[in-house]
Design a protein that fits this description.
- By secondary structure, this protein is of the alpha+beta class.
- It has 4 helices and 7 strands, in the order E-H-H-E-E-E-E-E-H-E-H.
- It has helices spanning 10-16, 23-31, 77-81, 112-122, and strands at 8-9, 35-37, 40-41, 47-48, 53-58, 61-67, 84-86.
- It has a 5-stranded antiparallel sheet with strand order 3-2-5-6-7.
- A hairpin with a 2-residue loop joins strand 2 (35-37) and strand 3.
- Helix 1 packs across helix 2.
- The radius of gyration is 22 Å and the shape is elongated.
- It starts with 7 loop residues before the first strand and ends with a helix.
- The mean pLDDT is 86.
Amino acid sequence: METEGGAVRIDAWIWSVRLAKTRSAAAAACRAGHVRLNDERAKPAQTVRPGDEVRVRQEGRERVVVVKRLIRKRVGAPVAVECYEDNSPPPPPREAVAPAGVRDRGAGRPTKRDRREMEQLRGR
């Protein structure tokens, strides 16, 4: 599970600590420029060492992690969390506002008056 040599491919490490669902997805993220290693764009075969900072951009948010332990094989989530230190900014708060223009099921088509009220809510 742990490596003695001191270096692991970055795509394999991202996959093994569960920052990506598959190794091919981790490699694709590296090729697309969504992974940075010590503030430089990372290629899939680049090696990662303990103490390195890895930034992974996924689903509109950036994960910033510092490598604590190297592993090659995918492990369970509790063990994976021990392999890095998460310095990611907190996710943005979700808006509690209901989307404008949503009608109750079975209410039929909006009347002209309903349509004008919806447009007014949208700011048109």
